[in-house]
Design goal:
With 427 residues, the protein is of the alpha+beta class. The protein has a single domain, classed as FAD/NAD(P)-binding domain (3-Layer(bba) Sandwich). The chain is 33% helix and 30% strand. It contains eleven helices and 19 strands. The strands form three sheets. Strands 1, 2, 8, 9, 10, 11, 17 and 18 form an eight-stranded mixed sheet that branches. A hairpin with a 2-residue loop joins strand 13 and strand 14. The longest helix is centred in the last third of the chain and has 29 residues. The protein is globular and about 65 Å long. The relative contact order is 0.18.
Length: 427
């Protein structure tokens, strides 16, 4: 790299930041990726225990960037989704909502010999470490991206002409635009004076991997317990062929803390009661992780020479498994806007360029922020009239195929003004 300013400096090398750097660099934008943590640590097996739901359209972006071939071996397709209410004993209500991937075949998908669109999975479940490893390997070979790690931004100067980032190492990085991918508690949003609506749900998500006796057959299940959703997400088989699922178990914060303090036998009993017996004998495999849950939505996504992406702009409840996919759509929209500007000889960090990104993404993000907030409040309680109403609502939607298809296509990311990368095209 020479001394000219980068087109883009990305601060934060998590799943959003690293993917943004790769998408930008792969599209010809000179990019710096900065993180305080050594990037190799992101690929360690026990980094945080989480998996990610990759929506159908997000997978197309991964494929367009040449990532999916490596990820696919570790990705378990989500073919069906089953949603039901449940009581304190974990038993699911007989009234439920079932989504079948065959109801929402993409018109742009591959065709069978009769010309019918092939039904793709609604999404895939992938361990975060495999996503990180694939992205970082591609980044290491991308000549338009410089990896700056471990290092940390200690001062930022943003003017009408450019941004300058002073690093802890003493280096200064000049860029036309800075992207904050620091997560929901990053400092840049606050330093820019960008307010945010934020609150805690007083819930904790307990995350673990479970082994079970019978195969999941690609069915994701979400049971709404009084304390919050209990998600059972299909994973690829273990090293010895074990049937595995990723568990995101949401509980009230006080109860979750007590559960986490239990010994293995007592935790197993509480877990198995909520899991149920539909997959036979079940037991946690490996450690437990936990994450407090809340909502953050920035009042605006841009400032002078600054743009927010992913959780820095909108951190939502995991109830619908859409948080990361919103970030992927942010990335696709931002890269397309920046590439269009550079192609026309315009300033990639100019206010009108950034405003196009903000307008493009705000409606989609706001809709999902509001929807997840309402769903969590509606389903995380044990008020009998509300339980009855939501059970009847799930059953009613289940009986209307066009409505089911509508919701499935939304979950797959097939609705709205889609950026080129989300359509599987180059920007």
């Amino acid at each position: 790299m020479d001394d000219r300013p980068f087109d883009l400096a990305v601060v934060g090398a998590g799943l959003n930041g690293s993917l943004l750097a790769l998408a930008a660099g792969d599209s010809g934008l000179a990019t710096a990726l900065i993180d305080r943590v050594p990037l190799a640590s992101f690929t360690q097996a026990g980094f945080d225990g989480r998996t990610t739901a990759i929506a159908y359209t997000s997978q197309r972006l991964f494929a367009a960037l040449g990532l999916w071939e490596e990820i696919a071996a570790h990705a378990e397709p989500i073919r069906d989704i089953r949603i039901s209410d449940a009581g304190h004993d974990g038993r699911a209500s007989p009234l439920f909502l079932h989504f079948d991937h065959r109801e929402a075949a993409d018109e742009n998908a591959e065709r069978d010999p009769r010309g019918r669109a092939q039904a793709a999975p609604m999404g895939w479940i992938v361990e975060n470490r495999f996503l990180r490893a694939a992205i970082l390997r591609r980044l290491a070979g991308c000549p338009t991206v410089e990896l700056v790690s471990p290092d940390e931004v200690v001062d930022t100067e943003r003017t009408a002409d450019r941004a300058a980032l002073t690093l802890k190492s003493g280096r200064t990085i000049a860029a036309r635009l800075v992207a904050s991918a620091e997560g929901r508690f990053g400092s840049m949003r606050e330093e820019a004076g960008i307010g945010a609506r934020a609150w805690s749900y007083d819930q904790i998500a307990i995350v673990l991997v479970a082994h079970h006796e019978r195969p999941h057959r690609g069915v994701a299940q979400e049971k709404f317990l009084p304390g919050g959703p209990f998600a059972i997400l299909p994973m690829t088989a273990g090293e010895h062929g074990e049937h595995r699922s990723s568990i995101v178990w949401t509980e009230r914060a006080d109860l979750a803390r007590r559960l986490l303090e239990l010994d293995a036998a007592r935790f197993q009993a509480e877990f198995a009661r909520r899991f149920g017996d539909h997959l036979g004998r079940v037991a946690p495999a490996g450690p437990r992780w936990w994450f407090p849950l809340g909502l953050v939505h920035a009042d605006r996504y841009v400032d002078t020479r600054l743009v927010l992406v992913g959780d820095a702009a909108h951190g939502i409840h995991p109830i619908a498994g859409q948080g990361y996919n919103l970030g992927v759509r942010d990335i696709a929209a931002l890269v397309e806007v920046l590439v269009d500007a550079k192609r026309l000889g315009l300033d990639v960090g100019a206010a009108d360029t950034l405003e196009r990104y903000a307008r493009w993404r705000r409606a989609d993000n706001f809709t999902m922020v509001a929807a997840t907030d309402v769903l969590n409040r509606l389903f995380s309680n044990d008020i009998k009239p509300i339980r009855l109403a939501r059970d009847l609502g799930l059953a009613a939607v289940n009986r209307v195929p066009p409505l089911r298809r509508f919701f499935v296509r939304h979950a797959m990311g097939l609705v709205g003004d889609l950026p080129k990368l989300i359509r599987g095209e180059r920007p």
